[in-house]
Write a structure and sequence with these properties.
Number of helices: 1
Largest sheet: 5 strands, antiparallel
Number of strands: 13
Structural class: alpha+beta
CATH superfamily of the largest domain: Immunoglobulins
Distance between the termini: 49 Å
Radius of gyration: 25 Å
Shape: elongated
Number of domains: 2
CATH architecture of the largest domain: Sandwich
CATH topology of the largest domain: Immunoglobulin-like
Length: 182
């Protein structure tokens, strides 16, 4: 009788172990999928701090960053958003910005130029269009104009790559991290 109880306990322990491993695998997969979906809708911003001077006696800080991964659109073009923040030691406020995006770090042939956008509260710029394509490293830079109408020199943000997901024959999408969505 003890031998049977011992064998039953071993079998139950093995079943619990297998179920637990399967559950952990499924939860990990779900967490990776949710993480991807979250970052697609709410990009994570990387914020290196750069300081510059508008005019003597007035300095400010601009933090630049970009979305961790460009979003995918149904028209086949990547949708990108770049972010920044602005603060001034003199209490100046941002009244306008200009963003340029290029695949050349020297900005020799600008792919995207927002021109001057007069929106004081804006701290991001989004672009979807044919000037940005998948599989390319892009660089972006920013100019800020403050309420004294002083404009900064160009401030560079991080570069980013527009990685395209690979489609699978079974109808799923394989993401760069190896996660498969079906």
């Amino acid at each position: 009788m003890d031998k049977i109880n011992t064998e039953e306990k071993k079998i139950k322990t093995r079943i619990i172990s297998l179920v637990t491993k399967d559950l952990i695998f499924r939860l990990t997969t779900l967490a990776l999928i949710l993480l991807f979906l979250f970052h697609s809708r709410f990009p994570v911003s990387i914020q290196p701090v750069l300081a510059a001077t508008l005019n003597p006696g007035s300095s400010f800080t601009v933090c630049t960053g970009q979305s961790a991964q460009p979003a995918y659109t149904t028209d086949g073009n990547p949708s990108i958003t770049v972010y920044w923040s602005f603060s001034s030691t003199a209490g100046n406020t941002q009244v306008a910005y200009r963003v340029q995006i290029d695949n050349d770090p020297a900005f020799g042939s600008i792919n995207v130029d927002s021109a001057s956008v007069e929106i004081a509260a804006a701290r991001s710029y989004s672009y979807t269009g044919t000037s940005i394509v998948f599989g390319t490293r892009y660089y972006w830079r920013l100019q800020i104009t403050d309420d004294n109408m002083s404009t900064t020199d160009w401030i560079s943000g991080d570069s980013f790559i527009t990685n395209k997901p690979s489609l699978r024959l079974d109808g799923g999408i394989k993401l760069d991290g190896g996660v498969v969505l079906k």
